[in-house]
Amino acid sequence: MGIKIEFIPAAEEDYETLDGALKKEAAKKIDALANNPFLGKPLGNKLGIDLTGFYKLYFDKKRYRIVYRPVGDTVEIIEIFAIGKRDKEKIYKLVGHRLKKLRKP
User: Fold this and answer.
1) What number does CATH give the domain 4-103?
2) For the chain, which residues make up each domain, given as ranges?
């Protein structure tokens, strides 16, 4: 399909902090996105943070999430915004924070 997977720098750090087994599981899920960018579940408004256009994808028996968004009308790129534990929805706050940092001039 030719979809390119890109990590924002902070999400790359998230990935690098995973241990070996978790990193392998995350990599399998991320590779699967190249064939099906809508594999995850769509997000909307979470905790007052507008995450419309973003998706969540679970791994490690739903203990971890990958938050990403497809880019382009025909989905040429998938941007990975965060990888982290499914812990009281902290990951959504993290994505909201990262979005604000990216939008600042």
Assistant:
1) 3.30.2310.20
2) 4-103
Q: Is the model's pLDDT at 1 over the cut of 60?
A: no
Matching residue, tokens 């392998």: 24
The tokens describing 85, both together, are: 């534990």
> In which residue are the tokens 């408004």 written?
45
The answer to whether residues 43 and 88 touch, using CB atoms and an 8 Å cutoff, is no
Structure tokens given for 80: 């990975």
Q: How far apart are CA 82 and CA 41, in angstroms?
A: 15
Which candidate, 39, 41, 30, 28, places its Cα nearest to that of 7?
30
Round to whole Å and give the CA distance between 68 and 98. 12
Distance CA 38, CA 40 (A): 5
Q: Is the four-CA dihedral 22, 93, 103, 72 of positive or negative sign?
A: positive
Bridge partners of 50, per DSSP, are 45
Give residue-wise pLDDT tens across range 53-82: 999 999 999 999 999 999 887 788 899 999
* pLDDT at site 87: 78
